[in-house]
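We emphasize that the prediction below concerns an isolated chain of 129 residues; any contacts that depend on oligomerization or on bound cofactors are therefore not represented. The input was used exactly as deposited, without trimming of termini.
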Amino acid sequence: KAFFEDYLAYLETKDPVLTEKFHFLRQELANTSEGRLLIHNAYKFGFDISYKKGKETISGHVYEPWHLFYRGIHAEVLYKMNWVIQEYWQYLKLNNGLLFASEINGQVYYIAYDYDTDTIRSYLIIEES
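Result of the prediction step, given as a token string:
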């Protein structure tokens, strides 16, 4: 009963002590079969685990296996390279804004960082027959 009362207090007050207590429960998702399925397949549907384990100093956030963000075709690159979005942007900026990514969901894409607009652009490569 005390645990449930603490959880309700957490939902209402966002007490930092209670936040730490209940954040651990959310991290446990990674240890369940459903969580592992989510972590290893989300990219196939365009979703990325925003705050990856071991990337806390880069993302500035603790590991959250449940925290998904829709990134479209970029999710597969992030998953396969084990990057957080900050590393992806940094890679594109340092490599003259170019990343030729092939075979993302069976398609070939050219991905570029646009220095003028500070955005990432992706182009589907279509071969003429």
